[in-house]
Write a structure and sequence with these properties.
Elements lengths: L1 H6 L11 H12 L6 H29 L4 H11 L1
């Protein structure tokens, strides 16, 4: 986990896609947990997806419940700048 946290300190794409996977894979190789790259990559992708998509789903549900559309959020952000 510490190795992954250091990897995501580097500025990256939203959601840390790419850096988190590299950090997880590097940590697994360094600690000799998994040395098979495709399996380590699959684990990293599944782990990141399980952490990312539930949060997005809850956010979308909250927008739906409050009757706010994505276009309203986008336009409100543009109006502020």
């Amino acid at each position: 986990m510490v190795i992954t946290c250091f990897a995501i300190l580097i500025p990256a794409a939203p959601g840390y896609w790419g850096l988190m996977q590299i950090g997880i894979i590097f940590g697994m190789f360094l600690l000799n947990v998994e040395t098979n790259y495709p399996r380590a990559l699959a684990y990293a992708l599944v782990l990141h997806s399980l952490q990312y998509f539930p949060i997005v789903a809850v956010g979308m549900f909250c927008l739906y419940r409050e009757h706010v559309s994505l276009s309203e959020v986008t336009h409100a952000r543009q109006d502020q700048s």
